[in-house]
Amino acid sequence: MHILEDILVIDLTQALAGPYCTMLLGDLGAEVIKIEQPGAGDQSRSWGPPFVEGESTYFLSVNRNKKSLTLDLKSDQGQEIMHRLISRADVFITNLPRQSSRRKTGVDTETLMALNPRLVYVSITGYGTTGPYAERSGYDLIAQGESGLMSLTGVPEGEPMRYPVPLSDMTTGIYAVMGVLGALLARQRTDRGQVLDLSLLESQSAWLAILASAYLNAGQEPQRLGNIHPNIAPYQIFRAKDKHIIIAVGTQRLWTRFCQVLGISDTVMNDPRFATNTDRLANRAELVELLQNILSQHDADHWLEAFREAQIPSGPINPVAETLAHPQLLARGFNVELEHPLAGLVKSLANPVHFSDTPVSYRMPPPTLGEHNPAILRDLGFTPEEISTFEEQGVI
User: Fold this and answer.
1) Is the distance from CB of 267 to CB of 274 less than 8 angstroms?
2) Residue 310 in contact with residue 257, Cβ under 8 Å?
3) Residue 331 pLDDT
4) Close Cβ partners of 140 (under 8 Å, ≥ 6 residues apart)
5) Where are the beta strands (DSSP E) in the chain?
6) C-alpha closest to that of 333 among 344, 347, 345, 319
């Protein structure tokens, strides 16, 4: 049994936020039908290199556990097919930003909720469907900038930096999953669906929670600090003799043990400049210089082993290759392998949620464009002759 068994999700999204959401829903057992433009498909199918046998690794990363149906929603027949799907669906997800586009393609909220009042309708856009920016197109990088976090990312003397991954998109996808699960639970009580309105800007801005509280409640303007923590010291990266490591001394008890490991219990630990976390923050520059001089005397493995024995939170800064081969991740099955009809063995990252009784499942590789057209249309009651006509007319 899977959590979302018998739940049908219609995915009219492209790129990342929506597809990431629907992949996670598929992992939970939902049947996901991905609607794509005939002849072109999801725009991310062309994003590369790298490609594997013509398949974009970007697309492959977020589209497992889905079926692909190509559909021209500008045609009457395409909209008829979509409406048949919606009448059976539990969840519909779109990232069309403009209401005019939704009406033109027959997927506006009024039309679909009238067809299926139990539908959970999910809108993912750059700015949401209300407010002065509602009709603007939105992209991950823009949301990273407008959310305020980008101004705080990077070293103090450098320029603002984007996250190296599409954090706004992926965060919105995760929030969308949370919203869908909540709406499905509410539907059990009310027997009615509802409309969910998510934006990249709000999802990314939600990461400001701690910084926003400091500003809104205490008037403290956040500053770009690089790798140091604004409220704890020492809590940052240091360079050992051979490479950088992370040390997180978050309590006074850890500070005592940390000083013992470094052999500075009789010196630095007793220095009044560093007596408490507040003192250490006020004198951070002097403290970091002292600690760096000591830590640079031995290799990273020496220090990390000593910190582990003393139960001081610490760790290496792994390159991606080492992370993907991390023994803890491998032990927990974090690498997924699925056989793809064109690309061969496709690898992706697992769903990070572990359920004791209803585990996630990885049933289908990312689909080729229109791979499931005949099966889906037959299931909707269309005859082989009608399906052939749709193909000839470019409806699918």
Assistant:
1) no
2) yes
3) 96
4) 16, 17, 166, 167, 168, 169, 200
5) 8-12, 31-36, 51-52, 55-56, 67-70, 91-94, 120-125, 194-199, 235-239, 244-248, 314-316, 335-340, 344-349
6) 347
CATH 3.40.50.10540 residue spans of the chain: 8-207+327-393
Q: What is the largest CA-CA distance in the chain?
A: 87
Could you tell me if residue 99 is left (phi over 0), alpha (psi between -120 and 50 degrees) or otherwise beta? alpha
Q: What is the model's pLDDT at position 195?
A: 98
Rounded CA gap, 302 and 294, in Å? Answer: 12
**Superfamily classification of domain 244-316:** formyl-coa transferase, domain 3 (3.30.1540.10)
Residue type, 362: Y
Q: What is the DSSP letter of 15?
A: T
pLDDT at 27: 97
Domain(s) labelled CATH 3.30.1540.10 in the chain stretch across 244-316
Q: Which residues are catalytic?
A: 169
**Sheet of 235-239, strands arranged across:** 235-239, 244-248, 314-316
Per-residue pLDDT tens for 125-149? 999 999 999 988 889 999 999 999 9
Distance CA 348, CA 341 (A): 16
- Residues of the chain predicted below pLDDT 70: none
- Any idea which fold 8-207+327-393 has? Rossmann fold (3.40.50)
